[in-house]
UniProtKB/TrEMBL annotation, chain A:
Keywords: Copper, Electron transport, Heme, Iron, Membrane, Metal-binding, Respiratory chain, Translocase, Transmembrane, Transmembrane helix, Transport
Molecular function terms from GO: copper ion binding; cytochrome-c oxidase activity; heme binding; oxidoreductase activity
Name of the gene this protein is made from: coxB
A Pfam family that the UniProt record links to this protein: COX2
Organism whose genome encodes this protein: Micromonospora sicca
Reactions catalysed according to its record: 4 Fe(II)-[cytochrome c] + O2 + 8 H(+)(in) = 4 Fe(III)-[cytochrome c] + 2 H2O + 4 H(+)(out)
Protein name, per record: cytochrome-c oxidase
Automatic annotation (TrEMBL), chain C:
GO biological process: aerobic electron transport chain
Intracellular or extracellular location(s): Cell membrane
Highest classification ranks of the organism: Bacteria, Bacillati, Actinomycetota, Actinomycetes, Micromonosporales
Species name: Micromonospora sicca
Family listed: Belongs to the cytochrome c oxidase subunit 3 family.
UniProt-recorded name of the protein: cytochrome-c oxidase
Keyword Endoplasmic reticulum: no
A Gene Ontology cellular-component term: plasma membrane
Record-annotated membrane-spanning stretches: 27-51, 103-122, 142-166, 187-206
InterPro entries, per the entry: Cyt_c/ubiquinol_Oxase_su3, Cyt_c_oxidase-like_su3, Cyt_c_oxidase_su3-like_sf, Cyt_c_oxidase_su3_a-hlx
Molecular function GO labels: cytochrome-c oxidase activity
Keywords: Cell membrane, Membrane, Transmembrane, Transmembrane helix
């Protein structure tokens, strides 16, 4: 069983908690059975686990969780001890006693919980304030719009848009501005930041900060209809220079086709039904209904996490997306069997 | 004014014959439809709610089968979304509350020493409405038109534009229809407990279960209107083009959430509170002493029912409201755990001082303590805003509320079923079958729901019809699914046990458990008039109290036998001083007719047959007018002077 | 009115058993109190929704294109509806003393006032509907829902009053010993009146504050 990955030096508090988290089970072997499954969090590898935080917000909450967890374990042990005592010693011929131990009930049931809860409340307020302490006004900003059932991602200053993939510079607080085009959604990257709902008619803000480069899976967490299950996204944290380069490409026209197949594919895309809903920068296609496809070839998935992004799935998606992700907005496409490989080649080339 | 003759002590055979004559309902088809006997109605509530529980449980099994493996195709997303919405809606509205109201209907008059509820016909009406509303909602499922937006049906996904079809109309109208039943039953419980308690049952001698039911009823009175207002506006938005939840025309989508949770959080306690009352009622018989800290428990019941109205925003911690409001609601949500803590430790203290009799009802109470405490911990965690934002709407919250609702409501209900089965059916259950059922249900519950904490923390959101294979998701989901089958087998054994008891059980004595409350002071099952003589209550544990027992037998007097009609006693609200004997209504078909007219009204509204709805509305008014029409009496009796 | 000595005897005496002598509050009274309480909460939710939407909306309220409601008609409506409780009180007091004529004339007076109120509301709607409907925007939805829902309650109240009047005219219904239905219907009517005052404040006066 491997425990969560190393932390950067900046995260002293998280590191301290990690130490506690490793230490306690050894000190309290009795509780190992209880905590064992939870330590599987470590085994969860690249699962989007809140217990395997990769950024400041989630690290704080993970610390909070372990505090709450151990308090619960302690109080549960107390209750179980009392119950076990009763089950062992108060059966058979035990003499019934008729006292009214109100003091015991008040202290154990109200007094102790009150003290514990005041502490928990205080720690909770501190962490709430920390989560609310967003980045400054000139921090990098991402504008995320929820659609049924995908995420539109834009950056002020870059003309292009991408979908279901948010790139951020590592080690910086990035402001995320959240809007929804239709129903409620919720923006959740368990390893980076707790949820913020997207409220119809309003704008919400949250922030992300990843401490190490890598991909962090996020998913819509507010039920939003038929394909709520397939509304995932990826947060890609990269070093500042890589991020800047990526952002520059988002502002530039999409990659030109290089082969004949790709060129035919582009023509089919622009002149066919595709362009009515989808945009590719630098071509005539400027539809705004579906995701901008200018860099679709390099995305991690198709259909916001529905299927992997490879040629076979792409073909299946174009032919009839309803079999892949039933209920989504894209109708089956009447594409010629001859045209389809070209279209796939073109879209795969958009990186 | 005084009576001229002193009645003879004890209940004579003649009295019994006359009571039977006045109260008996002939076993005919008409009698079946027209009964107003709270015991028959209570039984019907239990059976009907149990039936809806089975339907909602089967929905859950289909869902668990779909989620056993990633990317499974057992059901389509549209089907899954209807199943989970109906599962939640039915469990909350059609099972939990009606089941507990079934216990209340059967038990409250018996526990307080009365012959029926305060409004027996209203009681029958409430049952029929519950039945019809439940069928109204479930009938939509075979048509593929069942609610599909979760049990809290957030705006704007509940709007016509995003959710065409009848789905959410069924939801809005079904819950409005059902609300009539819940409100009627609540008013009935409150008035019954206030006015129909046996002489001498002052407030400090009211059984804890009755306290719990009354507090619940008060919460319904003040919480349910918020849900009704919400659903009224939803229906108007969907059908008649209003804009309450439409931000593009001055509406606001969060209005739905505020109103919903102003109802919804008290509703959690509306479900759990009577169940806690069952725990307090079951414990004395199996610990051989009264529950420790009666006044503390009453105080905690009352304070929960008040504080529960001030915590709704903790369901909205991720909506981005101001932090100041979060701090307040976080504090209130934290504080509300304390009264529950008091009750838990009062029960533990009772067990520590008493002598445990480990029969099936006590097993379920112990299972309740273990499970409910765990659910309580995660509940307190949800009061911590920052943590809530991380795990809300993930499987962690699914784990939490199943611990609270199965642990806090279903386990006590099962304890109550085994405990009162002898009283309700007059038959004893099979002990070994019951033990098997307990262990299977207990194990099944934890195997199903404990892993949900884990994959919730590992990032799996709730309400997804499928999921991509992720480390930590696949295996634990399979475990949950296997656990759910185990739980289903356990619950099936409960059902088998009940059927076995009814068919083959040995006859139950009036008081098989040596229980402490008044229902054990009369026959099993009780005669239609409940008590040959209404008791005079002398203590908090009337069935353990010789003077109360005497008042039921040798000390019975004519003013408490009341055999010259279908009568029961009305007493004062606080001290239960006798005020007068009142005539109770005879059986009647009017409640069924009224409920039927309402069913036609709501069905016509659903299908947009508005003229039919108007006719049905007139029928409703006419039925009520006839129902309440005063009988003609001579002027001298009325006291008319001019 | 009654001998309060010997409560049990009073409760079981021949007269007490056959009448509704005022010994404590009756079950019906409590039932109506609870019903009114839950109805009042429903109105509180609707009025709360009004203020919630108003304060979430922005500075101009009612929204652009709809002028703030005029006060004359609603004030006249108030002057008609609120005093309509008085004849009910008078009628109820009358029947407690066995005076059936007071019951009948009081109820009739209330019916006249109630119907006048509804007629005034209809004329107000006729004017408003030319300006906005319940589908215009959220303000229109709130206005017609709240006033319409109250109007419905007035109608229900009038049905109760008319029903009492009909039962009383038939004879053999109410007297000094039996008037619980009168008392309960009166309570409902007072409630409908009081709610109007809250609506007057919310819908008509608050936009001018």
């Amino acid at each position: 069983m491997s425990l969560p990955v190393e932390k950067t030096a900046g995260l002293t508090m998280g590191a301290a908690r990690d130490a506690r988290r490793r230490g306690l089970p050894r000190r309290l072997p009795v509780l190992a059975t209880l905590s064992g499954p939870l330590l599987l969090a470590g085994c969860a590898g690249d699962a989007p686990s809140a217990l395997n935080p990769g950024g400041a917000g989630a690290t704080r909450v993970a610390g909070l969780w372990w505090l709450l967890f151990w308090i619960s374990v302690a109080v549960f042990a107390e209750v179980m001890a009392v119950l076990a005592w009763a089950l062992v010693f108060r059966r058979g011929n035990a003499r019934v006693r008729h006292g009214q131990p109100l003091r015991f009930v008040t202290i154990a049931g109200a007094g102790l919980p009150f003290v514990i809860l005041v502490v928990v409340y205080g720690v909770g307020l501190r962490d709430l304030a920390a989560l609310g302490d967003g980045p400054g006004p000139d921090a990098p900003t991402v504008e995320v719009t929820g659609h049924k059932w995908w995420w539109e991602v834009r950056y002020p200053g870059a003309s292009g848009a991408t979908a279901n993939e948010i790139h951020i510079p590592v080690g910086e607080r990035v402001k995320v501005r959240l809007r929804t085009d239709d129903v409620l959604h919720s923006f959740w990257v368990p390893q980076l930041m707790p949820k913020t709902d997207l409220i119809a008619g309003e704008t919400r803000e949250t922030w992300l900060r990843a401490e190490r480069p890598g991909s962090y899976r996020g998913q819509c967490a507010e039920y939003c209809g038929t394909q709520h299950a397939h509304m995932a996204f990826l947060v890609v944290a990269q070093p500042r220079t890589d991020f800047d380069a990526w952002l520059a490409r988002l502002d530039a026209p999409a990659r030109e086709p290089r082969t004949d197949a790709e060129r035919r594919g582009r023509q089919a895309f622009v002149q066919g039904t595709c362009a009515a809903c989808h945009a590719v920068r630098g071509t005539g296609a400027a539809g705004r209904v579906g995701p901008d496809l200018s860099n679709v070839g390099s995305r991690w998935s198709l259909g916001a996490g529905a299927v992997p992004n490879d040629a076979g799935h792409l073909g299946g998606w174009i032919a009839n997306a309803q079999t892949v992700k039933p209920g989504n907005a894209m109708p089956p496409q009447p594409v010629d069997a001859a045209e389809l490989p070209d279209l796939i080649a073109y879209l795969r080339s958009l990186e | 004014m005084s009576t001229t003759t002193t009645p003879p002590p004890g209940v004579s055979a003649q009295d019994l014959a006359r009571l039977a004559e006045h109260w008996a309902e002939r076993p005919s088809l008409r009698g079946w439809f027209s009964t107003v006997d709270h015991k028959r109605i209570g039984r019907r509530y239990l059976v009907t709610a149990g039936f809806f529980f089975v339907l909602a449980g089967l929905s859950a099994l289909v869902m668990r089968t779909q989620l056993a493996r990633p990317e499974a195709g057992v059901v389509s997303p549209q089907e899954y979304n209807q199943l989970f919405s109906m599962h939640g809606t039915a469990m909350i509205f059609l099972f939990a509350t009606p089941m507990l109201f079934g216990f209340g209907n059967f038990l409250v008059p018996l526990m307080i020493g009365s012959r029926d509820m305060a409004f027996p016909r209203l009681n029958a009406f409430g049952y029929w409405v519950f039945l019809f509303a439940g069928l109204f909602m479930w009938a939509s499922l075979p048509f593929g038109a069942a609610p599909n937006n979760g049990w809290f049906a957030y705006a704007p996904l509940n709007q016509e534009q995003h959710n065409p079809g009848l789905h959410m109309d069924v939801y809005a109208l079904g819950l409005l229809f059902l609300g009539i039943s819940t409100t009627a039953a609540s008013i009935n419980f409150i008035v019954t407990a206030l006015k129909l308690r046996a002489p001498g049952m002052s407030l400090n001698r009211v059984p804890l279960f009755v306290w719990a039911i009354v507090a619940t009823a008060f919460m319904v009175i003040f919480a349910l209107p918020a849900l009704n207002a919400d659903n009224l506006m939803l229906f108007l938005d969907r059908r008649f083009g209003t804009h309450f939840f439409d931000p593009s025309a001055g509406g606001n989508v969060l209005l739905w959430q505020h109103l919903f949770w102003i109802f919804g959080h008290p509703d959690v306690y509306i479900i759990v509170m009577p169940a806690l009352g069952i725990v307090s009622a079951v414990l004395p018989a199996f610990t051989r002493r009264g529950v420790v800290g009666y006044p503390l428990i009453v105080l905690s019941i009352v304070s929960i029912s008040i504080i529960s109205f001030g915590v709704w925003v903790h369901h909205m911690f991720a909506t981005g409201l101001p932090q100041l409001s979060y701090s307040f609601f976080s504090a209130a949500s934290t504080i509300i755990t304390i009264p529950s803590g008091i009750q838990i430790f009062a029960w533990l203290a009772t067990m520590l001082l008493g002598r445990l009799v480990l029969r099936v009802p006590l097993l379920f109470v112990i299972g309740f303590v273990v499970t409910f405490v765990l659910g309580g911990f995660t509940g307190a965690m949800f009061a911590v805003t920052a943590f809530d934002q991380q795990v809300t709407d993930s499987y962690f919250v699914v784990a939490h509320f199943h611990y609270v609702l199965i642990g806090g409501a279903v386990f006590p209900m099962l304890a109550g079923i085994y405990y009162w089965l002898p009283k309700i059916t007059g038959r004893m259950y099979h002990e070994r079958l019951g033990r098997w059922a307990f262990w299977l249900v207990f194990a099944g519950m934890h195997v199903t729901f404990f892993p949900m904490h884990l994959y919730g923390l590992f990032g799996m959101p709730r309400r997804v019809y499928t999921y991509r294979s992720e480390p930590g998701w696949d295996g634990w989901n399979l475990v949950s699914t296997l656990g759910s089958y185990l739980l289903a087998v356990g619950l099936l054994l409960v059902l088998v046990g009940v059927v076995h008891a009814v068919r083959r059980g040995r006859p139950a004595p009036p008081d098989p458990w040596e229980g402490d409350s008044l229902e054990w002071s009369t026959a099993s099952p009780p005669e239609p008039y409940n008590f040959p003589a209404l008791p005079r209550v002398h203590s908090l544990h009337p069935a353990w109290d010789e003077r109360t027992a005497e008042s039921l037998g040798a000390g019975a007097t004519a003013d408490r036998i009341l055999s010259d009609g279908r009568r029961t006693l009305v007493t004062s609200e606080l001290d239960a001083h006798p005020e007068r004997a009142v005539q109770m209504p005879e059986s009647t078909l009017k409640p069924l007719v009224l409920a039927g007219a309402l069913l036609i009204f709501f069905t016509s509204m659903l299908l947009a047959w508005y003229p039919a709805a108007a006719v049905a509305a007139l029928a409703v008014v006419a039925t009520i007018a006839v129902w309440l029409w005063p009988p003609r009496r001579p002027d001298e009796e009325l006291g008319v002077t001019g | 009115m009654s001998d309060r000595g010997g409560v049990v005897a009073a409760a079981t005496g021949a007269e007490a058993l056959s009448t509704e002598l005022p010994v404590g509050r009756s079950a019906g009274w409590w039932g109506m109190v609870m019903f009114v309480a839950t109805e009042a909460t429903l109105f509180a939710c609707l009025l709360g929704s009004y203020f919630y939407l108003r304060f979430q909306y922005g500075p101009t309220w009612p929204p652009a294109g709809i002028e703030a409601p005029k006060l004359l008609t609603p004030l006249v409506m108030t002057a008609v509806l609120v005093p309509s409780s008085l004849p009910v009180v008078w009628a109820e007091r009358g029947i407690r003393q066995g005076q059936r004529w007071r019951l009948q004339s009081g109820l009739a007076a209330t019916m006249v006032l109630g119907v006048t109120f509804l007629a005034l509301q209809a004329s107000e709607y006729a004017e408003k509907l030319t300006q906005f409907t319940m589908t215009t925007d959220a303000y229109g939805s709130l206005f017609y829902l709240i006033t319409g829902f109250h109007g419905l309650h007035v109608m229900v109240g009038l049905t109760m009053i008319g029903w009492l009047l009909a039962a009383s005219l038939r004879g053999g219904s109410f007297g000094s010993h039996r008037h619980e239905r009168v008392r309960n219907a009166a309570m409902y009517w007072h409630f409908v009146d009081l709610v109007w005052v809250a609506i007057l404040f919310t819908i008509y006066l608050s936009p001018r504050l």
